[in-house]
Amino acid sequence: MKTPGIVSTISELRGQIAQWREGHELVGLVPTMGALHEGHLSLVRETQKHCQKLVVSIFVNPAQFAPHEDFDRYPRSLESDADKLSTVGADLIFAPSVAEMYPAGFATSIEVGGPSRGLETDFRPHFFGGVATVVAKLLIAALPDYAIFGEKDYQQLLVIRRLTHDLGLPIEIGGGAIVREADGLAMSSRNAYLKPDERRIAGTLNVILKDTTAKLRSGATIATAESGATAALIAAGFKSVDYVAVRDASTLERIERLDSPARILAAVKIGGTRLIDNMAV
Amino acid sequence: MKTPGIVSTISELRGQIAQWREGHELVGLVPTMGALHEGHLSLVRETQKHCQKLVVSIFVNPAQFAPHEDFDRYPRSLESDADKLSTVGADLIFAPSVAEMYPAGFATSIEVGGPSRGLETDFRPHFFGGVATVVAKLLIAALPDYAIFGEKDYQQLLVIRRLTHDLGLPIEIGGGAIVREADGLAMSSRNAYLKPDERRIAGTLNVILKDTTAKLRSGATIATAESGATAALIAAGFKSVDYVAVRDASTLERIERLDSPARILAAVKIGGTRLIDNMAV
User: Fold this and answer.
1) Are A93 and A229 in contact (CB under 8 A)?
2) For residue range B212-256, what is the model confidence (pLDDT) as tens digits?
3) Which of A110, A119, A125 has its CA nearest to residue A69?
4) How far A164 CA sits from the closest chain B CA (Å)?
5) Which of A147, A176, A205 is a domain's end point?
6) Where on the phi/psi map is residue A140: left (φ > 0), alpha (ψ -120 to 50), or beta?
7) A109 to chain B nearest CA, in Å?
8) Which residues of A touch B108 (CB under 8 A)?
9) Is the same domain home to A197 and A169?
10) Domain containing A205 — which CATH number?
11) Cβ separation of A110 and B110 shorter than 8 Å?
């Protein structure tokens, strides 16, 4: 158990990484928005398999929240995040201010088409633009050998892989398996918003996706499976279903049949909280 | 006089640069679209003041040409370009294919607001998006210490400085002074399109900008100076004037008075050719 150092400027981050590079150590980056939970810690452990030195960035990125979304109330807890990271042996926390990431006059935005089309973009149209721009900045700031993003945000993972490849950033992008609560609920910082009765309903999201996957495997059509899942989610008590969609696992394009790897992805609302989940079919 | 090596993949480029880095040599990049002239060679010489090793990239970027523009007829002359670069001691030419820069499924685009607003963007709306995306790729591919862009494309230079700063690329962006023919015409690969009578008229662009600058210095208002220059250009034989504009030299915002550094910028057409020029006021 060691306490990771905390730096808040790109220049300090680069200084530390340059020092590690002198010793020919491989460097990993785990980008997060803080409010760390076991899902994040599993990303840290996975990254440690690939690298000797590990940076966790903590930055709640205003550019990926729409004005009506939860930027202001998004949980922030740098001190307890640092405590959690000390238990897994992270080497450095990069916690920049908004002004450090978006200096005066900032005017650049990055858009990724391809896998960003549809699904989340239909409901959060500015989301991936904000994500792509800040992730490009973080990757350029640290230039790690390896960076990891959770499969919980599966569409985001594909967008970031596309971005990294398109820009030619010499960084391997890993995907971290979803970590779940006992009842199957995917861990998420936003789960903290759930009231007890909402929390109970939230657990059925994963159960319904698993059931739907089983039905697909035993021959249900994609259209039937998607509409069945939507009905089951509403019956379980979710307020609304943004989407339940079975898509090509690598492009997220619509598919007719399950003849190549597919993924089922869902976004639902309960109370004031929006939850997402996904799994391989 | 040494013949520079030529590589066509990002991976070869990085391999060579990594070797130089082992020897702690500073690396400079001169991005070009080829069809090199004395203006480009002056960028090479300027860069050599800052760096020990120098890469010239040659890539005619389809993304910055609109469908009706001159992508197909833009002059390409890799062999004679290499000859010219051997006279100035360039170390490496990076001449990627379109497929190397835009691999299958490429879906990323970078937009820079701020200095890209107005002027060129009013007439070539996709231009700076294409420029920003390819320049970011080139800068990320080479990660030089220093890169230079000609002041002839003054607005482009400001857009690239903004982009580089916004993305946090650790690269100094230099601006190379405009190199001119004997009559004042700014050197440009597109000058090769000019017929003899067009070429004669083209030389008056710089003369008229110089006259206009003198008038501004002796008290003419910006509005009077701009409209006077437009009238003079038409009288000199140009087919049309896209713009003549006096702007803030660092933001390109409109100004009322000459109380901070200003720049006069112009774009004109003659025959099928579009010419640009600019100078400090």
Assistant:
1) no
2) 999 999 999 999 999 999 999 999 999 999 999 999 999 999 999
3) A125
4) 9
5) A176
6) alpha
7) 5
8) 110-113, 132, 162-163, 166-167
9) no
10) 3.30.1300.10
11) yes
